[in-house]
Design a protein that fits this description.
Distance between the termini: 17 Å
Structural class: alpha/beta
Strand order of the largest sheet: 1-2-3-4-5-6-7
Oligomer: single chain
CATH architecture of one domain: Alpha-Beta Barrel
Number of strands: 7
Order of helices and strands: HEHEHEHEHEHEHEHHHHH
CATH class of one domain: Alpha Beta
Radius of gyration: 19 Å
CATH superfamily of one domain: Aldolase class I
Shape: globular
Largest sheet: 7 strands, parallel
Strand content: 5-15%
Length: 301
């Protein structure tokens, strides 16, 4: 999820209500709050908790909400905040893999930190997020399976960008009914879903969530193979446009489609809305409009 801000930098809770309703209307089967797209590193702990609680209240049980709960500090300090996030009503609290051990820590050292966190968070359901900030730590398939076997890990946002890794992770964890892998990389979205991924957790969902939903529902339908290939190619072709100047361009695009949010971002590297950037996003919107007409997808804005 994105986080809407007022032009003075405060969280815009009216806009957050509208944004949450937008995702739900688009057919999202779950919400990942307080993530990198949400500008989580620019939020205070109090803001994180209030924001997550607000989203849970707006969703009102219609879909599960997960939210990141591990940041700076000792494992004990992180465990304490995990419990606070869980108390806001989320389905699971997400662990940022790049913040659980140093960048040069071994796999064994990282595993030790995770098992310590599991011990300190009692029965709180957890998930993993291979966030690229402060550095990306990608879990190996065997490592992920080791954690899922505890029965405590129910979610994994994969950012390996490696379909071989994704296939192996899905193969090793397929027997765990409560666990799901959600792929962030749209260039192999169809192959990922076909290998058993539970869904997609991608920044493209902050532009065209209804198209991501359509793909998740129809990727395996033989009669729609041509259309599925068309959607997969669209996501592949438009990858670079949607990653540049993010998240400000996602906010601009949604605003241009009628969502009542500001383009304000707290992130220093969140992009600048130059005339060239606006032109590129508007052109992207035009291409999506033509694709949507081909697929007969109803707009949610």
């Amino acid at each position: 999820m994105l986080t809407p801000f007022k032009d003075n930098g405060e969280i815009d809770y009216r806009g957050l209500t509208e944004l949450t309703a937008f995702y739900l209307k688009a057919g999202a089967s779950g919400l990942f709050a307080n993530c990198l797209s949400s500008e989580m590193f620019e939020l205070s702990p109090a803001e994180m908790l209030q924001m997550v609680r607000h989203i849970v209240q707006v969703a009102d049980g219609s879909v599960p909400v997960v939210a990141t709960g591990t940041f700076a500090g000792s494992i004990a300090q992180q465990a304490a905040f995990v419990k606070q996030v869980y108390d806001q009503g989320v389905e699971a609290v997400i662990v940022t893999t790049g913040l659980m051990a140093g960048e040069h820590a071994s796999e064994a050292e990282f595993n030790q930190c995770i098992f310590e966190l599991l011990d300190l968070t009692e029965d709180v359901p957890l998930g993993f997020y291979e966030c690229p900030v402060p550095f990306k730590r990608v879990l190996s398939p065997a490592q992920l399976c080791l954690f899922v076997e505890t029965g405590r890990v129910i979610y994994h946002k994969d950012t390996s960008l490696d379909i071989g890794q994704v296939r192996k992770k899905n193969e090793l964890t397929a027997r765990f009914e409560k666990f799901g892998l959600y792929d962030a990389y749209m260039e192999h979205a169809v192959d990922s879903l076909g290998s058993g991924s539970a869904g997609l957790s991608c920044i493209q969902g902050n532009f065209f969530p209804e198209l991501v939903v359509w793909l998740c529902k129809n990727y395996h339908v033989p009669e729609l193979k041509a259309e599925v290939n068309l959607v997969q190619q669209f996501f592949t072709d438009e990858m670079d446009v949607m990653h540049q100047n993010y998240p400000i361009i996602a906010k601009y695009y949604l605003q241009s489609q009628g969502l009542g949010i500001s383009t304000f971002t707290r992130r220093a590297a969140g992009g600048v809305l130059t005339a060239a950037v606006i032109q590129a996003v508007d052109a992207l919107g035009g291409r999506y409009k033509r694709l949507k007409k081909q697929l007969d997808i109803v707009s949610v804005l």
